Amino acid sequence: MSEREVLELLRENARYSAADIARMTDLEEDEVEAAIEELEAAGLVRGYQAVVDWDRLEDERVRAEVELNVRLDRETGYDDIAERLARFPQVTALRLVSGDYDFDMEVEGDSIREVSQFISEKVAPVPEITQTVTHYVMTSYKENGIELGDGEDDDRLSYSP
Amino acid sequence: MTFELSDRVQAVPPSGIRRFFEIAEERDEVISLGVGEPDFATPWAARDAAITSLEQGKTSYTANRGKRELREAIADYVADRFDLGYDPDEEIIVTAGASEAVDLAFRAFVNPGDTVAIAQPAYISYEPGVIFAGGEVLPVPTREEDDFRLTVEGLEEAGAADADVLVLCYPNNPTGAIMPEEDLEPIAEFAREHDLTVFSDEIYAELTYDGEHTSIASLEGMRERTIVFNGFSKAHAMTGLRLGYALGPADAIGAMNKIHQYTMLSAPTTAQYAALEALDSCDNDVEEMVEEYDRRRRFVLSRFREIGMDVFEAKGAFYCFPEVPEGFTAEEFAEEVLREQGVAVVPGDVFGDVGEGHLRVSYATGLEDLRRALNRIEAFVADHA
Ligand SMILES: Cc1ncc(COP(=O)(O)O)c(C=O)c1O
């Protein structure tokens, strides 16, 4: 119902004001505010971030996708390993995935050196981790559903029938 | 030597939006709410089908009436969505846009001197189309009090009982009005009683935000006297691919095909492949676009009310039709808001005299731009209060 609609609109643009969302959904502004509060309280909405095209920034920002293989034992499950890895601030995303490897981890740092060091000194030594494969991101074309490129200009005529 | 223009060409005045276009060109940073086409690109699957067809060298003419496969897909689609049953072999013709279909119908069914009643405000191409065909236009005004729906009283007052053809367009460009089944019934009865041929332009059918679209051709006794126009420009965001179609009884479509086969031969082949894919696999894309238009519609209507401009509750297409504040004509408002604030809107009188005092505002533009444009309109209204 409307909560879902509010969620979709926030996903589209987290900066829509409650008033804007109210206008788009025919809800009252305070209903929108209440819905957002509830979504946040329920942990459905976990935060709001800008989608950044780092390639446009002068300063280097290095990102890597890391494949991780792990060996589980009786005491340690996926969740335990994940919990340990997710605590590192360098890790921006961590997912257990199906297929050839176990975890898919996104890492960010200020330089290749920093990221490499993090992987070799902090991640690889974790006893359950049997293998890491690091892929440095060279160019990003789409992030969070938003295409990064130059953006297409609206070349429609300003008046048409 | 100078060309001597035909009387029919001379009878058509220059387009009312041309002058505005020139002003807009001179000014930078115009936000345009003057466009009558989607701001979305054609769904990728349809574009990909077009590309593949080109890669495979499918670049020859198709059958005059369009690829059989496409006509079948159209027949299934209109049966499913609008309860319309048409035979793909004889009762469907694929055209270069709904525009061509409209033109074919005027030329096939209007004799010099015939009267064509047009429910107004109306899409700007009908009147010239009638004049090019040698017919006479009979404007049938609709009123905001009736939600811009056509009524039998309106038809009677205008003298449409004596007309030969009645042109309808719902959901409507420019008002955004729709005609639910209960409003179409008396119009259908009027058409049967007075033996009118009905041209029903339903190109915005998918863009109906409140209830379901009803085609007048699906009402009893109407199929045999109605030509339905539709196409891929609006709901499938395919304006530049130029693909539309007409539905009607076999002899009528045959007559239209007679003109089409000598003037157009066949609709663009690449576009036909795109359209086939659009019908086959793009329902979700259409649904998403419709949802997005609906959100913008609510946003725009609510902003106009906050600004203090009366606005009719548009329920279809992607236009709304606010009233200009006192002290302005539609043209003055449109021109000044363009010059002062760089917002392009179309004055309502372009769509017939009854549109005076209104603006056509298109929301086929992203929400950020809509928000900025409405802020500018708000500032403009405040400056001139
Ligand atoms: C009511 C109406 N009919 C027909 C058309 C033309 O459609 P097409 O691109 O299929 O020629 C338009 C375009 O604005 C329209 O608004």
From TrEMBL, chain A:
An example of a GO molecular function for this protein is:
DNA binding
The record ties this protein, via InterPro entries, to: AsnC-type_HTH_dom (IPR000485), Dimeric_a/b-barrel (IPR011008), Tscrpt_reg_AsnC-like (IPR019888), Tscrpt_reg_AsnC/Lrp_C (IPR019887), WH-like_DNA-bd_sf (IPR036388), WH_DNA-bd_sf (IPR036390)
Q: What keywords sit in the KW lines?
A: DNA-binding, Transcription, Transcription regulation
User: What are the residue boundaries of the HTH asnC-type domain, all occurrences included?
Assistant: 1-79
Question: Out of the domains of life, which is the source?
Answer: Archaea
Protein name as it appears in the record: Lrp/AsnC family transcriptional regulator
Native organism: Haloarchaeobius amylolyticus
